[in-house]
Every structure is written in structure tokens, then in C-alpha cells.
Amino acid sequence: MALVAIGCASTPHPQTRAHRAAKQTPAQHARTCSTAPPPTGATGSGWSLAHYDFHHTYLDMAATPSGSLWVVGRYWPEVCGRTTDQPLVLRGDGKGEWTRVPAPELPDSFASRIAAVSDDDVWLFGDSGQAHWNGSTWTVTSSDGARFGRPYTDAKNIWIIEGANILSGAGGAESGPWQAMGVLRRWNGSTWRKEWTPVTPASVSDGWIAGSSHRNAALARRSGGVWRAVPIPAVPTVHKGQFSRLEDVTVDASGRVSAIGWIAWVCGGEEEDVDYCGRGLFLHGVPGRWSYTLRDDPSFDAYGPIEADPAGGVWILYSKNDFVESYVRVMGTKWTFGDFPRGPLGNTRIGHLVSVRATGAMWAAGSDATEAEEPPYKGGAIWRWAP
What we know:
This protein is mostly beta strands. It contains three helices and 29 strands.
């Protein structure tokens, strides 16, 4: 596999690491335009900033079953001057070593999503193109007008949801009640084949689909090569005219399923637009034994990706505001909220969160940014969590 080493400094002693972090403030980085801030120590949540580069911004991350990590983003050759960004792909060994893989440009777009079945079977996706890595070269093709969302993988398959929509009140007063959209496709070796599903899919994980059916939250499971609806309890009624959807799903090593979504209803509007109010919806359990949790905080539609960790917890990302990416970890009935450790520029935006069962670690990749007048203005950050 043709890889380009970018180097990785050894992790300093915790006391030395804390001392350096205290000495290097965001303002100092901005004045000196440093390009190599040291990783920060772990917070009380167990998350630590494991890798950082002012030349990078990271958009998405994927993990293989063996524990290697793949990241897609953009590369900025000049940190302190005007520059044109370039495509970026990194591979991590899960131990702290990160290497650059030659990255292709996609037709009329740039790669913002990545999926990895193995180190010899990696996919990049953009708004109008895709690329496949076979371990030595990329093959780039057009998506022929298809609008692909996040890709998903298991041990043998890669899936993608085409045309999925988000809850939006724009034009809702004229177009009628909001309807979920999305079509599931699976790569069969030569084309993206459409698969019938009993629910409108929002996400896929470990052979499960989260989504909705007839405007109600729903799950489906793949068995014998066929997707079948999984009975779940009726969503609790909290408001007249409500509807619901599960946005993401995860399965832990024991087979327990967790899904995050929302309940919503129309609560206002102006001219042709409508406003929605709602509650966060969390489903947890196994077939035949399910339970719901409803949340008023944060905003009902603020919750993002969900991922089970090897220690029995479930992590859910959400945006606290425009500058801080936050999380909640669910252990049984306990919800613990927190923020990811900030990068040296002070802001964090997480692209994606992955769990690596082979090593027992969690990883997240994203970007750091600042509104300061002096460069650097951005950076790429990778976080690690271990129980």
C-alpha cells in the first residue's frame, strides 16, 4: 500500500504533557503560527486530543474490523498565507502513527465522507462522485446525479443511503406534512443496487436500519439477505399531531441496540414556512424488551451520530452551539453530558465518531477553528477515548 509518512511524536509523560499544554495558549499559537501543538491530556471524560495538524481539516472517519482508522479531509499547504486546499486521506494504525495516502479529486466536488471495509477496500464519497481504494490505487467514478449520504459498512458489505432528508419547515405550509425520504443501496461489486426496506432509512449499522414508517419511528433488521421490520413499542404520545423518526442506530458487543431520534409537531410558522417543536427520543434494548427515554435538552433535533463503546456505554454527539461540539454518554439510565477537549484554536466540530472493538478504543475526527485576525485559522483534530 503506497503511503506517505507524516510523522508522529511519542506521547510525553503526563506531567510534562500538562506543563506544555499550559505554556502553549491559543494566542501564542496564532502569533508564532506554530504547526505542531502537542496532544493534550485526557479530561475527566476519558477523551484526549491524540493528533493535531494546522495543515489539515478532517471531515469524516471510518474504522476497519482490524482496528485501523481512515480519515478524509482537506490539506492546506500554507498555514500562514493564502493557499488552495487539496484532498487529504490519512490512515492510522490505532496506536498513534498516522500516514498520508495519496488522495484523488472527485468530479465537481470534494470527498467529505469515507467508509472502510478493510485497508484494501476503502471508499470516498462527495456530492457528485466517488472513489475506491484497492490497496494501491484509486478508481474515481461519477455518481450519475445520485445524492449519496453517509456510507456504512459491515464485514462484507458497504451500504449508502440516497436522497435522505432532514426535518425542515421550509415551505411546509404549502407542501403539506413533512415526509421522510431515503433509499438504501448496496454495492454488489459493479453497481449500487437498490434494496427494498420496510422502513424509510435514515442510517444503517451492524445489520440494523433506523428510520420511520408511516411517520412513526421504526427499526428494521437484515436476516437471510432480506430486511424485515422489527416490532417496537408505540412511541409515547406527547402532543397532538406528532410524528417521529429514529436518526441513527448502534449495536454493542452483547447485541443490545440503541437508537436516537426525535418526536416533532408543528408549533408555529410564518408565511410559507412552519416551525417544529419536539422531544429527543432514545430507544434502547433487544427485540421484545425495549424502553424509551424522552429528552427536553438539548434541542429535540440537536442529537447527531450514536456509537456504542466497548465498556457498555453509548455515546451521542450533539452541537451545544456554533463553536463547541458536545456529547452525552448513556450508561443504563444515567446520562452524562460533556464537551470534547478543545483544540489550540478554541473551537471543535466533530466529523464522525467510531468504535474499535479490536482495541477497546473510541475515536473522533473533526476540525478546530478561530475567528482571530492572525493565522492559523483552522486545524484538524483527532480525539481518542479509552475506558
